[in-house]
Amino acid sequence: MKKDVLKKILAKPEKKHKVSDFETNYTASLTKKKANKLLDKNREKLAILQDKLYAHDRYSVLIIFQAMDAAGKDGTVKHVMSGINPQGCQVFSFKQPSAEELDHDYLWRIYKSLPERGRIGVFNRSHYEDVIVAKVHPNIVLNGKLPNITSEKDISEKFWKERYRQINDMERHLTENGVIILKFFLNVSKEEQGKRFLARLEDESKNWKFSAADIKEREYWDDYMKAYSDMLTQTSTKDAPWYVIPADNKWFMRYAVGQIICDRIEVLNPQYPPLTEAAKIEIEKAKRKLIKYKPELAEKIHKEFSSSSARTPVFRRRTKTIRDRHTAKRIRKTNRKVRV
How far apart are the first and last CA of the chain? Predict the structure, then answer.
C-alpha cells in the first residue's frame, strides 16, 4: 500500500488520537471497480502466502477487528479471507463472557484462542471489548469480581491505564514470540450506521441481524468514540499499531484490509522448507514406483541419481530418454501381439 494512503489510516504510536481525526469515506482516489480487482488479486496472493506461512511454521498471524455495530466486520472477514485454506485459519468472536470466563482474568479467553504457528487467527471483537464496552458500561467491570473493585467509584483513570498497559505487555510478549498482530478499527460514521440498520429492517434476509440493543447503543455514540479514541492513543504501538480503516464504503474497506494483510505477511518472506538430500532421493524413488518403472531401470536411475551429476539438466535428459525408450519398447511389444 502506498505511503500516502497508510499515512491517512495509521494511528501513529505515541501520538494522541481522536476518531474524528480519521475520515470515514476516504477511498484513496480508487474506483469501486479497481478496488474489487485489487481485492481479487490479493485474495489469490493471500492463499499462496498462507500456504507458505503454514509450511514455514515460524510465525502466526493474529488479525483483530474492532468496530461499532454494522461497520462490516463479518463481511470483511468473509470477503478478504474467503480464498485461503480453512485448515490454516480460525475465527473467534468474543461477546459477553461466560461464567467460566468471568472466573478468570479478562485475557484468559484470549490466550486460549491464539493461533498456532503457521496459522492465521481472526478475532471478530477481542480483548479490546474490555476497554471499550466496559468503559462505556462500567458495570461490566464489576461482573469480573476483581479485588478492590466493589463499586463504579473504584474504577478510576488509573484502573484504565493499568489495563492498557496489560494489553500492551501481552501484545509485546506475543510479538516477541512470533505472533504478527494486525489491528483494524473499522471506522463507520453514525449516519452510515443508521442507513445500514434501516437496510437490515427492510430486508427480510437480514432481519435476523437486527437487535433492539443496537439502537440502544447508538445513544452512547459519543461515549464510544471517546473510548475508541483512548484505545488508539494508548494501545497503538510500534509492534502492533492500529489501522483506522474508512468503513463507509465497504469496497474500499475490504481492499485496504486485504492489502495490509498481504503486505505484512510478504515482509516475513515465508518459504517452503528445503528438503534434505535423503528426502529428495526418497521422492524420486516414489515417483518411479508410481510410474511403474522396471526394477532394472529403477536401479540404473537410482545409481545415476546418487552420482554427482544428479538433478542436473543432463541427468534429467537421461532420465527422460530412459523413460521414452521403455515406453517405446512396450509399444513395439503390443504391436507385435496385435499383428499375431
Answer: 71
Cα–Cα distances (Å) from 74 to 8, 214, 250, 302, in that order, read 24, 16, 11, 54
Q: How far is CA 296 from CA 119, 283, 300, 307, in A?
A: 45, 18, 6, 17
Measured from the Cβ of residue 320, the count of other Cβ atoms closer than 10 Å reads 10
Give the pLDDT confidence score for residue 297 in this predicted structure: 58
Q: What are the E-state strand segments in the chain?
A: 10-11, 60-67, 89-93, 120-124, 179-187, 242-246
Q: What is the pLDDT of residues 216-246, one digit of tens each?
A: 999 999 999 999 999 999 999 999 999 999 9
Q: Which residues pair with 160 in a beta bridge?
A: none
Q: Cα angle at 75 between 237 and 251, to 5 degrees? A: 85
Number of domains in the chain: 2
- Contact in structure between 84 and 48 (CB atoms under 8 Å): no
Q: Which amino acid is at 165?
A: R
Percent of the chain at pLDDT exceeding 70: 86
Predicted confidence (pLDDT) at residue 124 exceeds the cutoff of 80: yes
Q: What is the largest CA-CA distance in the chain?
A: 103
Partners of 120 in the beta sheet? 61, 89
Co-location of 53 and 167 in the same domain: yes
The torsion of the CA quartet 275, 279, 281, 282, rounded to 10 degrees, works out to -140
Residues spanned by the domain of 291: 277-339
For the chain, state the CA radius of gyration: 28
Q: Are residues 227 and 310 in the same domain?
A: no
pLDDT band at 331 (very low <50, low <70, confident <90, very high): low
Q: Residue 171's domain is classified under what CATH number?
A: 3.40.50.300
- Coil, helix or strand for 285? helix
Q: Cβ atoms within 10 A of the Cβ of 59, count?
A: 17
Indicate the pTM of the whole model: 0.83
Same domain for 242 and 308? no
286 pLDDT tier (thresholds 50, 70, 90): confident
